[in-house]
Amino acid sequence: MTNTAPELNTPAIPAESIDSANTPAEITFADFGLDPLIQKAVAEQGYNTPTPIQAQAIPHVLTGRDLMGAAQTGTGKTAAFVLPIIQKILRHASSSASPARHPIRALVLTPTRELAVQVAENAASYSKHTDLRTAVVYGGVDMKEQVGLLRNGVEILIATPGRLLDHIGSKVANLSQVEILVLDEADRMLDMGFLPDLQRIIDLIPAQRQTLLFSATFSPEIKKLAQSYLRTPVTVEVARQNAAADTVKQVVHMVSSADKQRAIVKVLEARTRQGLSRQCIIFTNSRLGCARLARALERDGIKAGAIHGDKSQGERTLTLDAFKSGAIEVLVATDVAARGLDIPSMPCVINHELPFNAEDFIHRIGRTGRAGSKGDAIALVDDSEKRLLDDIEKLMKRKLEVAALPNFKQEPGQTSDPFFYKPYEATKPSQSNDPVQSSVTEPKKVGIVSAKPAVGALLGGFKKK
Ligand code: AMP
């Protein structure tokens, strides 16, 4: 099948009519003028209304503007760039088997393999009714399968920078026909030291390209990156800069490090009593601490799994799948490993310790309260972490509520919960029409939306129906 999409799409909503502060509420996917093949795929995902970042970004991307998007994972940002990308390159779609007819047209760079896999899954779902091919390449796994996919030809490539450079070095990947470049979670790519890799990669892409940069925060370094590689970009943002979602209730408990594990158990017990989900991500700063905490919680009878950099890709996938299915209720994670995980319904995030980098705190608590749902973010802070707390408060430009740690012991005859003298807000099943919010409350839609292909099968490419 060859698609006959128009060369230049004219969206029904002019890009300039949408500004970040004032997103028209009544926008539908049909308003973007996307090809029916894309609209069909979107409808199959069960999305009714674009999320704010989608409403803001899609018209700009369709008109060819470079764009800086301030949006965290969980806001629908992936579809905000993937849908218009598919629309724009659809004119190249070809049913020919010849690799020459399938050069890389769109390149998405991500900091981690988890995010790469998730973006690729989205791209595969949204393009499944077209002849466009999608593949993902990342490090830590054998190159062979990826080489096969790249040699066959692929229009949309999602990659982590290091592994992409390996494939470029062995002449398996060629970027000379890339029209659209996306730097996803650019702040994290810089944090992880990918700048030299990014520079090498971008130098291989034609200057006549469209560049989209997404980042949870706009640090001076990100602004510098944008100045170097984006041309008069339009900026769209869905949350206040350096702010957590308003739907997240944040609490700090001052607790000695020796008592932190016990405090977690208390938090989970209290959530059970209050009829709240026990599902949570607990963040730790080190791989060792992450593994230890998960084991200790298991000894306390809590179904816990650990996800950190020392785990193989296969182990991470298994743990993540178990978490998404509910077989594990507590995921203990380090920042890097948790980056980009698509778990829309996360009701609670616990910081077992504060991150050394204040921006990481925003990423961590961004795991909850996503797409308008409510969430609790609980930080367990000991005296030695007060300086880190100061940094976080400075970055967020607000003081966090400190709840004095109540007595751990239940006094005889005491009926109220000593730990929760002030209960966290329950997340009630939503009656809202907001599709993201309602998807959050439906267990079926938790996690990765497209069940196929399974994460474990995603070593590289996606087969079309
Ligand atoms: P992202 O921020 O791209 O990681 O997306 C977060 C979650 O929202 C994913 O599970 C998406 O499948 C889902 N999602 C994206 N766009 C929409 C939409 N318009 N309506 C409902 N859910 C969406």
Features:
single chain; 465 residues; alpha/beta; Rossmann fold; 2 domains; 7-stranded parallel beta sheet; 16 helices; globular; disordered N terminus; disordered C terminus; binds adenosine monophosphate
Any overview of this molecule?
A motif (Q motif) lies at residues 27-55. One of its GO terms (molecular function) is RNA helicase activity. This is DEAD-box ATP-dependent RNA helicase RhpA. It is a single chain. This protein has 465 residues and is of the alpha/beta class. The protein contains 16 helices and 14 strands. It has two domains: 16-239 and 445-459, P-loop containing nucleotide triphosphate hydrolases (Rossmann fold, 3-Layer(aba) Sandwich); 248-421, 3-Layer(aba) Sandwich (Rossmann fold), CATH 3.40.50. Helices cover 34% and strands 13% of the residues. It has a seven-stranded parallel sheet, sandwiched between helices. It has a seven-stranded parallel sheet with strand order 10-11-9-12-13-8-14, sandwiched between helices. The protein binds adenosine monophosphate. Adenosine monophosphate is lined by residues 47, 50-51, 54, 73-79, 342, 344, 371, 435-436, 439, 449.
Assembly annotation? single chain
Secondary-structure element pattern, one letter each: HHEHEHEHEHEHHEHEEHEHEHEHEHEHEH
Strand order of the largest sheet: 3-4-2-5-6-1-7
**Structural class by SSE content:** alpha/beta
Strand content: 5-15%
Query: Can you tell me the residue ranges where pLDDT is under 50 for at least 5 consecutive residues?
Result: 1-24, 410-465
Q: Sheet with the most strands?
A: 7 strands, parallel
What is the helical fraction, as a range of percent?
25-40%
- Tell me the domain tally: 2
Bound molecules: adenosine monophosphate
CATH homologous superfamily identity of the largest domain: P-loop containing nucleotide triphosphate hydrolases
Gap between N and C termini = 12 Å
CATH architecture of the largest domain: 3-Layer(aba) Sandwich
How many beta strands in the DSSP annotation? Answer: 14
Mean pLDDT: 80
Number of helices: 16
CATH class of the largest domain: Alpha Beta
